[in-house]
Amino acid sequence: MANYIFNDSVRIDMPDVSLIGDLVIPEHAKGLVVFSHGSGSSRHSTRNRFVAQHLQRSGFATLLFDLLTEEEDRDTRNRFDIVKLTQRLIQTTYWLQQDPRTTAYNIGFFGASTGAASAIGAAAAEGPDIIKAVVSRGGRPDLADAVLPDLMVPTLLIVGGKDEEVLQLNIQAHDRMQCIKDVEVVPDATHLFEEPGALEMAAQLATDWFRKYLEPAKQQPLHQNRP
Fold first, then answer.
1. Which of 163, 167, 186, 207 could form a disulfide with 191 if both were Cys (CB 3.0 to 4.6 A apart)?
2. CB–CB of 109/89 below 8 Å?
C-alpha cells in the first residue's frame, strides 16, 4: 500500500478563472504527471483515474483537473478550443512550479483524446527545461499540427490497433515530430481501450515512458538519430 504525503482536492487560481483538481503525491515521488482530458471528459474520468492510480503505485505524483469550469463545459465549442485548453495547461504548470507542495518535481503531461493536442501544444510552448515527457492515449496530436515540428519533449503516442483512423493520424503526427518519439499500438484495442487488458497495457506503456524520461536522474538527449 502506497503512502501519500498529499491526497486531496486543490484549487488552481488563474487570472481569469479558478479550476478544481485532485492532487496525489506519494512518498518519495519520482515526478509529477499532469492529465489533460479529452472533450466531454473531466477529472472524474474512470480511464484516466485508472492510469493515474497505476502511476501512483509506481511512485509518481498525479494531478487530474478540469480544464473548463462547469459553465464553460456547457458550451461544447469550448471543449474543442485547443488554444484555450493549451493556455490553461500552461497556467496550471506555472501554478505547480509556484506551489510548495509540487515545486520540486519534474513535470510530465498525459493527454487523452483531444487533450493530447493541448498537452503537445503546452509542451512545445514550455520546452524541455520545464516539461520532461509527454504521453498521449488515443490522442489527436493532429489538432496541434502547427507546433509538432517545434516539440522538443520526448513524446509517446499510444493508440489502439483497431482505432484505425486515429492510428493513421498519430503516425502522420509522429512523422512530423523532430523530438524523441515513438508510437505504441495496443493490439485489438479500440478508441476507449475498453477491451480486457487494453487499458492496463496503455497504463504500463505510459509508466515506462515516464520512468525513462521524467525521473530526475534520467538525462536523455532531446533528439534521436534514427528516423
1. 163
2. yes
Is 227 a domain residue? no
Distance from C-alpha of 160 to C-alpha of 193, rounded to nearest angstrom: 7
Which residues constitute the domain of residue 13? Answer: 4-213
Global pTM value? 0.92
CA-wise closest residue to 141 among 122, 161, 162: 122
The pLDDT tens digits of the residues spanning 81-114 come to 999 999 999 999 999 999 999 999 999 999 998 8
Please report whether residue 224 resides in a domain: no
Separation of alpha carbons 17 and 102, rounded Å: 21
Contact 43, 64 (CB under 8 A): yes
Q: Which of 158, 146, 173, 166 is nearest to 205 (CA)?
A: 158
* Cα separations in angstroms, 58 against 24, 34, 39, 106, 128: 13, 15, 27, 15, 23
The DSSP string of 125-162 is HH-TTTEEEEEEES--GGGGGGGGGG--S-EEEEEETT
User: Number of structural domains, the chain?
Assistant: 1
Q: State the Cα–Cα distance between residues 179 and 34, nearest whole angstrom.
A: 20
Beta bridge partners, 157, equal 136, 183
CATH of the domain at 172: 3.40.50.1820
Tell me whether residue 219 is in a domain. Answer: no
